[in-house]
Amino acid sequence: MASYLEPGRRVTLCLAERRVPSRILAVAQDTVGVTMDTPPYPDEGAGVGLEFEGPDGAVSYYTRVIVCPRAPGDAMILMRAPNISGAERRRAWRVPLDLRAPVRRVAAGKAADMRVVNISTEGALLEPEAALELHEVLDIYLALPGQDPHLVRARVVREEASPKRRPRSLRFGVLFADLAPDARRTLTYFMWERLIKLYPKEMAKLFPGGKAYRKLQGRKRKDERDQRGQRDERAGEPEAP
User: Fold this and answer.
1) Distance between CA atoms of residues 86 and 145, nearest Å
2) Which is deepest, 39, 119, 170, 179, by most CB within 10 Å?
3) Residues 6+ apart with CB under 8 A from 17
4) Residue 132's closest CA among 174, 83, 89, 166?
5) What are the residue ranges spanned by the domains of the chain?
6) What does the pLDDT look like over 186-236, one tens digit per residue?
7) Rounded to the nearest 5 degrees, what angle is found at the Cα of 197, between the Cα atoms of 195 and 202?
8) At 239, phi and psi to the nearest 5?
9) Per-residue pLDDT reduced to its tens digit, 130-146
10) What confidence tens digit (pLDDT) does each residue in 55-69 have?
11) Rounded Cα gap, residues 24 and 49, in angstroms
12) Which residues contact 201 (CB under 8 A, 6 or more apart)?
């Protein structure tokens, strides 16, 4: 199948009885950012079809809204349906997260707190006190800052040496398995919020007119006002004799 989910591609948003012309701003993990300049805006969780004109006719992808626009120029973030989540090559965005989380090793029936080093919508990097086994299954009680907690199942897929801890300490990469829709929505929303805070310039470029762009522009205007104020103060100072 040809890749239709590419930044810059024109697309029609199918919302109930409305058809709205739009453009793809960015694609990352199971999410797609699109323009949505014409209210009324859909509610969170509403179904949205992405329709493209292909060489053999119309092609449609089914998505749901996870971040709603609030004003013209805001990006709308959509979550793709699981049946197409593996159809496109995606960049795995990860954000740092120094969080202690209760983790149960399913086969061993043992539980312990482990440090979550970083996280993405597909998995996480854990730093436990005792070594884990590759391919073993874990239940992680994930309580992300500012979000509802969820119990997520994960599988250990790799190990690596910890660069900052004791020499023999290991970190383990885990892949989330069968995330419930509400857990995936919570995780994705957290990722977007954290990415905007950590990488405002990069996100502003990906989503011109969105929240990150407005924050960056506001910061620039404040810096310009401060610089003008400093110049005015220097201009008003008496000259040295």
Assistant:
1) 28
2) 119
3) none
4) 174
5) 10-84, 95-189
6) 888 888 788 777 777 666 666 655 555 566 566 667 767 777 777 777 666
7) 60
8) -70, 145
9) 899 988 999 999 999 88
10) 666 677 778 888 888
11) 13
12) 216
